[in-house]
Amino acid sequence: METRSDLLALYEHKIMPDQDFPVQLLQNHVTTKGYYFMPHWHEYIEMHYVRAGSTVISCGQERFAPSAGELVVVNSNELHSGALETAFTDVYVLIFDYSFFAKNSLENYVIFRHLIPRNETITKLFEDIFREDAWREPGYRMAIKGRLYELIVFLLRNYATGHLTSRENARRNRNLMRLNTVLKYIEKNFSHPITPTELAGLINLSEYRFCHLFKEVMKQSPAAYVNEIRLKRAHHLLAESDMSVAEVASYVGFNDYNNFGRQFRRFYGCSPSEVRKKP
Fold first, then answer.
1. Are 28 and 52 in contact, with CB atoms under 8 Å apart?
2. Over the stretch 109-129, which tens digit does the pLDDT of each residue have?
3. Which sign, positive or negative, has the C-alpha torsion 204, 205, 207, 213?
4. Which pLDDT does position 277 carry in this prediction?
5. Can you tell me whether residue 252 is helix, strand or coil?
6. CA distance 64 to 226
């Protein structure tokens, strides 16, 4: 059984059509449970502002469940995905090249806090940006740039958690590129037994060096990451397919049905049967 993510590379090479306006604005209105964007990463900063409903955004190994008025910031070179576990979500998505806006600035490689609570300033700036894009009156791009500068400065002053040097940022990007082969392999083969030795061989490293690199980049062990991928795929199948819970457990690589139930409840806080697709 081939799934959509088997066909997707985790690295997303985004091309901004206008180098003088390196910004993408999207709106996700989702009513179907499961993934609505699959795990991927890129060099740009990506922000998800929830207008209504709720969603689940994964950034690296962390999961956040923002509700209306809250913002999730995905930092540059960070693996992320989005899934719907409730009735619906309506999200503004803002993607931009931070280096363009931070030219000649000491904050070229800033790290922002992931989950940002409701804030009137952030709400107004997002609504202004998307309203300008919708109406597209004369000067709308300049207006969006202005609001985006305001948003970046506000986040810098209130929600920046650290900075990377240019060397650290380049190393982070290089390591993610190197692991991309491994992450894609896991995405395609998660239903089969996978060992660290096998993964290390894909990028010609010793098992020790590979595990060290993987944990440094992904903030968890290879085994924990494989387990997370299996559980996320199980959740998607439970919500979107007609497979039985036992069939899902077996398909994603859990030979022990009871262990699958325990792991699933620990990760999602509910049993597999609670996310079954409604008739």
1. no
2. 889 999 999 999 999 999 999
3. negative
4. 54
5. coil
6. 19
Candidates 62, 93, 99, 54; CA nearest to 80 is 62
Cβ of 131: how many Cβ atoms within 10 Å? 14
CA distances from 261 to 127, 145, 226, 251 (A): 42, 48, 16, 14
HEC string of 143-199 equals: HHHHHHHHHHHHHHHHHEEEECCHHHHHHHHHHHHHHHHHHHHHHHHCCCCCCHHHH
161 is written with which tokens? 């958690």
Q: Tens digits of per-residue pLDDT, 207-225?
A: 999 999 998 888 889 999 9
Instruction: Give me the CATH code for the 167-275 domain, please.
Output: 1.10.10.60
- Is the CB of residue 238 less than 8 Å from the CB of residue 276? yes
- State in words which class domain 4-163 has: mainly beta
Model-wide pTM > 0.70: yes
Would you say how long the chain is, in residues? Answer: 279
CB 175 within 8 A of CB 216: yes
Domain ranges of the chain: 4-163, 167-275
